[in-house]
Each structure stands twice: as C-alpha cells, then as structure tokens.
What we know:
mainly alpha
Amino acid sequence: MGTVAAAFAGRLSLIAFATVALRGAIAGADLEGGLYAALVAAGAAFAVGMVTGLLARWVVEEDVRTEWERLSTDANTPPADGGRND
C-alpha cells in the first residue's frame, strides 16, 4: 500500500477520533460510550482516507504516465518543416 495514502488515512482518523471524543466530552457522554464512538469514527475515517489516498495516487500516476508518453512521442516525431530553419 502507498505510504502517502496510509499517512493521509492516519491523519484523517486522528482528526475524526479527536473530533468525536471532544464532542462526547462536551455533550457529557459517559467515557465508555464516547471512546467507543470515537474509535468507530477513527476506523471509518481510516478506511475512507485509505481509499481516497490510493485514488489520488492512481490519478497522479496516470497523469504522469500520460504526460510522459505524450512528451516521448513528441520527442520522436520529426518537426513538420523537416527540421529546416529557413
């Protein structure tokens, strides 16, 4: 798996955990229920973050591959004027 995707997923899950835990603390929820909800949110956010990170990696790699092919094709194509600089 991509390290950038895992890093993104990890950060997203920590943000989700902190947000839900803080929301539970402000609402006065019991500790067990609040932490359970925060862990579930962290797990869901990690999954979403991995999918999003892997999709972003795929999009960037595909764009680079397409651009590389375009540039290598352009480099192998002779100029339209036959290379003359009149």
